[in-house]
Amino acid sequence: MRVRAILEAKGHAVVTAAPSATVTELVDVLARKSIGAVVIDDGEGGLAGIMTERDVVRALAAHGPSALDRPVADFMTRDVVTAGFEETVDEIMDRMTNGKFRHVPIMDGVRLAGMVSIGDVVKCRMELIEAEASAMRDYIATA
């Protein structure tokens, strides 16, 4: 299965923030939306970075409560691993596992087109496993 199929099922909406947003504002968005990452928009529909729960924890550990009043640009991950529509779920899963991250922005050229989380990947894999098991049961039943 390809990334395109995941986005067709879940949608292309991505929660974004400006690099100038404060960490407090970002934390509020994470909590309100029950998400683990926010893409930091470059102002042109592209990607400047990503700010995750882990980035927030690192900022607080390094700078204490004063980090909450600083812009996310000070702490965001700038070297973001991205993927395209035609990459497979297995490729994304390997990348997430090896890189120890849980969110991958999906790009259509230089334009942000969606976000895939580890939860999306696991859900997809479970659906494939269930479909294979069902096909196997049907095959055995007709043999």
From TrEMBL:
SUPFAM superfamilies in the cross-refs: CBS-domain pair
Isomerase among keywords: no
Limits of the CBS domain: 8-68, 76-132
Gene3D superfamilies (UniProt xref): CBS-domain (3.10.580.10)
Entry superkingdom: Bacteria
Pfam families: CBS (PF00571)
Keywords, comma-separated and alphabetical: CBS domain
Keyword Protein transport among UniProt keywords: no
Protein known as: Inosine-5-monophosphate dehydrogenase
